[in-house]
């Protein structure tokens, strides 16, 4: 293991990686489930070494080139993605707020708070069927509104088109 780490990475403290790998292996709840202990140990050591590299954050380009055996990717989102995500979240929040009251309440309880249909039905004093239909309606209206915003159509138009139309003759 030490020889493999020395060949693969010069930046990490080999003894620290080995020790941490043993500690992680000792923490495995059921070692009998590990099909290939040797491969598991090497994978654990590789992950420990990568963690050390990420913590060091000072990596030379030559050292990265030598690490052809794995991909070191910074998985944190870029500032542009963070800003875009915040804008999208604000937009979806506004769309949720524009849903009809009952539909919005059930949609938020179901999709945002993660409550079950049964819990929502009990809290609101309605049937589970009503909860299911209102959650589906809310999702459909949101999807329609998101699609419509591409064409600059408002959610209110999507809500109005979803309401049953009454003819003057049927009154």
TrEMBL record:
Lineage: Bacteria, Pseudomonadati, Pseudomonadota, Alphaproteobacteria, Caulobacterales
Record's protein name: Sigma-70 family RNA polymerase sigma factor
Domain RNA polymerase sigma factor 70 region 4 type: 90-142
Keywords on record: Sigma factor, Transcription, Transcription regulation
A biological process term (GO) from this entry: DNA-templated transcription initiation
Keyword Cell membrane attributed: no
GO molecular function terms listed in the Swiss-Prot or TrEMBL record: DNA binding; sigma factor activity
RNA polymerase sigma-70 region domain span: 8-57
Organism: Caulobacter sp. 73W
Family: Belongs to the sigma-70 factor family. ECF subfamily.
